[in-house]
Amino acid sequence: MFKSVTTVMTFALDPAASARWWGEFLGVPVTTDVSDTGSVYAWVEIAGVEVGFHPADDALNRRGGSPVVYWGVDDVDHVRERLLAAGCTHHRGPLTIAPGRRIAQLRDPFGTVVGIEGP
């Protein structure tokens, strides 16, 4: 039924700024689309997955929270330090959840929680 994750949608007060930050951090291009109403949807592609930044709207899309997406990394501590140096803040972890498997969560400068997982 399910195949693979194709898109991860995040909701941001400033979608273009959020996408630019991630694009610069990861060294990937940012694509932006502006609707007829002036709403901005921006996205980056990471490892074949579109990570989209949609305008946040408490009435339409921020009720109930969002899942935390965990990105596989080669070294949790190294990537965590790079994210902190780039402007993210600590949210949770690092935690060892199984032998050789660790996770951490950080909040990007725009409030989105991102997870990293690896050794």
Keywords:
single chain; 119 residues; alpha/beta; four-stranded mixed sheet; 8 strands; 19% helix; globular
Quick synopsis:
The protein has helices at 15-26, 76-86, and strands spanning 7-12, 31-34, 40-46, 49-55, 70-72, 89-98, 101-107, 113-118. The protein is an alpha/beta fold and 119 residues long.
Word description of this protein:
- By secondary structure, the chain is α/β, with parallel strands linked by helices.
- Helices cover 19% and strands 42% of the residues.
- The protein starts with 6 loop residues before the first strand and ends with a strand.
- The backbone outline, from C-alpha atoms, is globular
Count all strands and give the number: 8
If helices are DSSP runs of H or I spanning 4 or more residues, what is the number of helices? 2
Strands in their spatial order, largest beta sheet:
1-4-3-2
* Poorly predicted sequence stretches spanning 5 or more consecutive residues: none
Chain-averaged pLDDT: 90
> Helicity level, as a percent range?
10-25%
Structural class: alpha/beta
Beta-strand fraction estimate: 35-45%
The N- to C-terminal Cα distance equals 30 Å
The largest pleated sheet is described as: 4 strands, mixed
Rg result: 15 Å
H and E string: EHEEEEHEEE
